Amino acid sequence: MQQEIDVNLFHSLRHLTVLGLSLITGATAWAQPADYPTRPITIIVPYSAGGIGDSLARIIGDKVSQILRQPVIVEDRPGGNANIGILAVAKAAPDGYTWLLAAPALTANPSLYKHAWDPLKDFIGVGIAVSAPSLLVVPAQSKVRDLKDFIGLAKQSPSKLNYGNPGIGSSMHLNTELFKMASGIDLVSIPYKAQPGVLTALIRGDVAIAFLSTGLAAPQITSGRLKPLAVVAEHRIPGFPDVPTLAEAGYGEANVVPWYGFAVPGATPHATALRINDAINRALSSSDVQDKLRNLDMVPQSPRSLDEISAVIRSDYEKYRAVIKKAGITAD
Length: 332
Prior knowledge:
The protein is globular, with a radius of gyration of 24 Å. The longest helix has 30 residues, at 2-31. By secondary structure, the protein is an alpha/beta fold. It is 44% helix and 17% strand. Helix 6 (171-183) packs across helix 11. The relative contact order is 0.17. It folds into 2 domains: 41-132 and 258-327, 3-Layer(aba) Sandwich (D-Maltodextrin-Binding Protein, domain 2); 134-254, Periplasmic binding protein-like II (D-Maltodextrin-Binding Protein, domain 2, 3-Layer(aba) Sandwich). This is Tripartite tricarboxylate transporter substrate binding protein. Belongs to the UPF0065 (bug) family. It comes from Rhodoferax sediminis. Pfam families: TctC.
């Protein structure tokens, strides 16, 4: 009888040991992707083909393909103010084979739409490729000489000056609202479908002020059609060394610099995220990649760790959420 119990106990323990080893092996295989990647990677761009996001994804994707020795496919999924493409990645398998081309919509849209995503839980940032500086500009015929002049004028005439808004929830829109909060002024939003419409209105003098991308504003400043007051950037930008950043002008809380990068689904194994982060950082360290990114009028970024990227996402999300709530902005 005792021998039978011992035999049964032996078999039970053996069964548990085999089961435990299989569970450990399975978990290890999921958490330690030593052979990742073994098939093509897809980068989903939540914007139209031919735009900045599409071009950026292809530049980085081509270099990453060489580093990881697997094809990288760029798939454009525009629509819903970037929500369609972003949600597609949030719901994708967390296996490292579906990446998001991330932009300000990743951190702004959750506060604009009721049924969006949580950028801190549903995504892991794996790379910040470029920043996209913008210039705060006024028409050439404006009497203001600098940012201090404009703020003084706006305070003398509350709610009488307007600004060009290229899209609800766009980085230009939110930067303007952040600037209004930081400086204590009130400006009336004049909506346009995109930045070119704002540019035309500025040149004509139909709006008093607006943020524009450097690529769009710089030629008009050089030709004397616009005057720059400040730049949203980490540092002063080449070509306009006398134009201060908003932070230098005393409005650092409004100096939220838009960036483009990459993210993967939130449940992606840490080891996989590290592998992707390393590949993107190696791509960003390439001089030919940096040259191509500068040709997009973007500022190439230095390699960042997963923790550093997470901190940027959290900071932007919290700043955008605060200004959207205070200004009562909604896109639903």
